[in-house]
Amino acid sequence: MEFHRNLNDNTWHCCINCSRWPANSYNILRAEKLPDPLKLCDLCKTLQDSGQCVRFPDRAIGSKASSSLRIAVITTAILAGVIAAAVLLSKNFDTR
After folding, report:
1. How open is the CA angle 35-36-41, to the nearest 5 degrees?
2. Residues 6+ apart with CB under 8 A from 1
3. Are residues 44 and 87 located together in one domain of the fold?
4. How would you classify the pairing of strands 11-12 and 26-30?
5. Could you tell me which residues come within 8 angstroms of residue 17 by beta carbon, excluding any fewer than 6 positions away?
6. What is the pTM of this model?
7. Do 74 and 85 fall within a single domain?
8. Which domain range does residue 29 map to?
9. Beta bridge pairs of residue 26
């Protein structure tokens, strides 16, 4: 399971449909359950207990899903870099 927490908060989240789910500047912890004494968000706990918690896709280290996701992220990052370089080059060679 994947847990996220904002860098400026000590509360961890496990449900991506939690209204307090960290959007940016966060830490990630991958574990079967949140270790003591770390604190789980009360809203995430309520979502879990009610069966409404939507979890992050399985990205356990070494799993097939993890490898596929890692490749997709790397490929996307490389593609974004190539596009950015092409845009910069086109601006440098624009003779208008």
Report:
1. 80
2. 14, 30, 31, 32, 33, 55, 56
3. no
4. unpaired
5. 47, 52, 53, 54
6. 0.58
7. yes
8. 1-56
9. 6
Kindly give the confidence (pLDDT) of every residue in the chain, 96 residues in length, as a single tens digit, with 9 standing for 90 and above.
Answer: 899 999 989 999 999 999 999 988 889 998 888 998 999 999 999 999 999 999 877 655 444 444 444 455 455 556 555 666 666 666 666 555
Cα–Cα nearest to 53, from 18, 2, 5:
18
- Measure the CA–CA gap between 84 and 89, rounded to whole angstroms: 9
Q: Which amino acid is at 90?
A: S
**How close are the terminal C-alpha atoms of the chain, in Å?**
54
Handedness of CA 26, 32, 37, 43 (dihedral sign): positive
Residue showing tokens 């979890």: 55
SS3 at position 55? coil
